[in-house]
Specification:
Chain A: One of its GO terms (molecular function) is pyruvate synthase activity. The structure holds two protein chains of two kinds. Chain A is of the alpha/beta class. Helices cover 40% and strands 19% of the residues of chain A. Chain A has two domains: 155 residues, Thiamin diphosphate (ThDP)-binding fold, Pyr/PP domains (Rossmann fold); 126 residues, Rossmann fold (3-Layer(aba) Sandwich). Chain A contains 13 helices and twelve strands. Chain A is globular. By secondary structure, chain B is of the alpha/beta class. In chain B, 43% of the residues lie in helices and 11% in strands. A six-stranded parallel beta sheet of chain B has the order 1-5-6-4-3-2, sandwiched between helices. Classes of the chains: A alpha/beta, B alpha/beta. Chains A and B meet through helix 4 and helix 6 of A and helix 5 and helix 6 of B.
Chain lengths: 312, 273
């Protein structure tokens, strides 16, 4: 636990996408003028004939991809999470409604576009995307998760929203040996008194919090809820029953996001007390993503405080 | 601007008559549909009858291979009743379904859905069809297929930003297998198009950004045929501006903002026509 070095999730993403392009000539990458920033441009270097920059036009990008998929191609829309939301209605009315084989692979999610401020920080996208019929929503934890999961994502038929950050990527799953499956949650650490559930880079804080809680004698499980939709109901129910308390953490609004998704399962299967750590306001500019997570109290300390509220 | 018709009519009088008869039957069925559901968009549908008839009966080729078939995308999805009526003429939709339009147990939805026979794209939210058409046309070209893509839009629809995104995109992709129609009937939901936003510059803009542009009378099948024949020769994306009348042929609402008439008025019209 908590071993390995920090790296870049978008680098892992760009390199993995090229590898997948070598294996499948139907994969087409489409971006709205953010090829370099997302590292989609690595695909362009290798396969220029299968790479389209549609310009700064997200709505057109989404329906262009929908049209390509209708002819049997496997388009991957690569964009900033924030600006993909601009085309949410196109994603709803074309991709989800027709259940088309389009992958929406976004970077710069959460606070990861730290310097650009609130206009570029997506804290609502999981909520928006998980409401859509046919759409699956997946949030990898770190570069190792991307290398493990993206090949599975691209082979799967139908629409998937795959949400990544930018540069800040603490090691979370790199030491683990498991095969990624859509719809499955992964136990990063087992425990008996409390469960922390979340997805993305903030699982780093979850693991740190678990270490601190263990020192206090509180046996803490940490679950990587990589697939937000369809969510792994059986794992959530199992840990609700086993530990009786759940804290969720997300780099996203607590309204409609991962905490909401978990609580929808918990109230149905086995109600237990919960606490939610995540965003409640728009973001702001900062020098780094870490500064923002600290500023908005999306930290190991907040998890520990929430856990202690539940334990007392 | 190119204009069809200079070389005569490339359609036999026999075929022309046949298409006109189909269009008239479809027109009457659309008018009748409002007896069953008072909320369908009759005016916008009657505006599209001849264009849909001409494309579906003369140009759109079927194939099981998505890159060898021709695609018809009704981006102005509220004209769905017209599309259903013409697809009924093709034998794809049973007559009884026409009368169940928008009914809870009916097949035909208020706007096109791909699970309805003959529908290539689920539409209904304006501005989305052209981008999808560019994607299909690009996929066909990448696969060396023979398919062509027809997209039908309205003039009010041109307010949507996605159309402007797609307009330049089609030129960048060089999709010469794409033919777009823009119906100019002069009305959108709330008012005349000119009262809402200016539209008279549209064809100049489309031409300026690199489209081959054509004009036709959207209710004259020979004029539509002429423009499609010319558009198919274009080496770049082609757009046909089709002058149409909202409510064409249904005098109680023709060329007005009205989408439909009362059952009594409709009954009298059908009885006298």
């Amino acid at each position: 636990m908590l071993q390995g070095s920090f790296s870049s999730i978008r680098e892992a993403f760009g390199r993995t996408l090229v590898k997948l392009g070598e294996e499948d000539s139907d994969i087409i990458v489409i971006t709205a003028d953010v090829g370099d920033s997302t590292r989609a441009s690595y695909f362009k270097e290798k396969f220029p004939e299968r790479y389209f920059n549609v310009g700064i036009s997200e709505q057109d990008m989404v329906n262009f991809a929908a049209g390509l998929s209708a002819t049997g191609k496997k388009p991957a829309v690569v964009d900033f999470a924030m600006f993909t939301m601009r085309a949410w209605e196109q994603i709803r009315n074309s991709i989800s409604r027709m259940n088309l084989n389009v992958k929406i692979l976004v970077t710069h999610s959460g606070y990861s576009d730290s310097g650009d401020g609130s206009s570029h920080q997506s804290l609502e996208d999981i909520a928006l995307m998980r409401t859509l019929p046919n759409m699956r929503v997946i949030v990898p934890a770190d570069p190792a998760d991307v290398i493990r999961g993206l090949p599975v994502i691209m082979k799967e038929r139908g629409p998937i929203y795959y949400r990544m950050g930018r540069e800040y990527s603490p090691p979370i799953t790199n030491g683990l040996d498991y095969k990624f499956e859509i719809g499955k949650a992964y136990v990063l650490k087992d425990g008996d008194d409390l469960t922390i559930m979340g997805a993305g880079v903030v699982l780093w804080d979850a693991l740190k919090a678990a270490e601190q809680l263990e020192k206090m004698g509180i046996s803490t499980a940490v679950i990587n809820l990589e697939t937000i939709k369809p969510i792994d109901e059986s794992t959530i129910e199992y840990y609700a029953r086993k530990t009786g308390r759940i804290v969720t953490i997300e780099e996203h609004s607590i309204y409609g996001g991962i905490g909401s998704a978990v609580s929808e399962v918990v109230v149905k299967k086995y109600p237990v007390p919960m606490r939610f750590v995540g965003a409640t306001t728009f973001g702001r500019s900062a020098r780094s993503e870490r500064e923002l997570l600290d500023y908005y109290n999306i930290t190991d300390k907040s998890i520990v405080n929430s856990a202690l509220e539940l334990i007392k | 601007m190119g204009k069809g018709g200079s070389d005569g009519i490339p359609i036999s009088l026999e075929e022309l008559k046949k298409l006109q008869e189909i269009a008239e039957r479809a027109r009457k069925n659309v008018i009748k549909m409002q007896f069953y559901d008072q909320s369908i968009h009759v005016g916008s549908s009657l505006s599209s009858i001849e264009i849909l008839t001409t494309l579906l009966f003369r140009y759109v080729r079927e194939s099981k291979n998505p890159t060898d078939k021709d695609w018809l995308i009704l981006s102005k999805g509220h004209a769905a009743p017209a599309l259903y009526a013409v697809l009924h003429e093709k034998g794809l939709i049973p007559e009884e379904e026409l009368w169940k339009i928008q009914g809870i147990n009916g097949l035909l939805q208020g706007h096109p859905e791909v699970y309805i026979p003959g529908i290539d794209m689920s539409t209904g939210s304006l501005g989305q069809g052209l981008s999808f058409g560019i994607g299909v046309a690009t996929g066909i070209k990448m696969s060396n297929g023979s398919g062509r893509v027809f997209v039908i839009m309205g003039d009010g629809e041109q307010d949507e930003g996605e159309i402007w995104e797609a307009m330049t995109h089609a030129v960048a992709r060089k999709v010469d297998n794409l033919i777009a129609f823009i119906e100019i009937n002069g009305f959108q939901l709330d008012a005349s198009t000119q009262d809402v936003k200016p539209k008279e510059f549209l064809h100049d803009v489309w031409k300026a950004v690199g489209w081959e542009t054509f004009l036709c009378d959207g209710h004259d099948i020979s004029s539509i045929v002429n423009s499609v024949e010319e558009a198919m020769k274009a080496k770049k994306p082609a757009v046909i501006f089709a002058k149409t009348l909202r409510g064409k042929g249904f005098t109680p609402i023709e060329n007005s903002k009205k989408q439909r008439a009362s059952p009594d008025v409709t009954r009298k019209f059908l009885f006298n026509s």
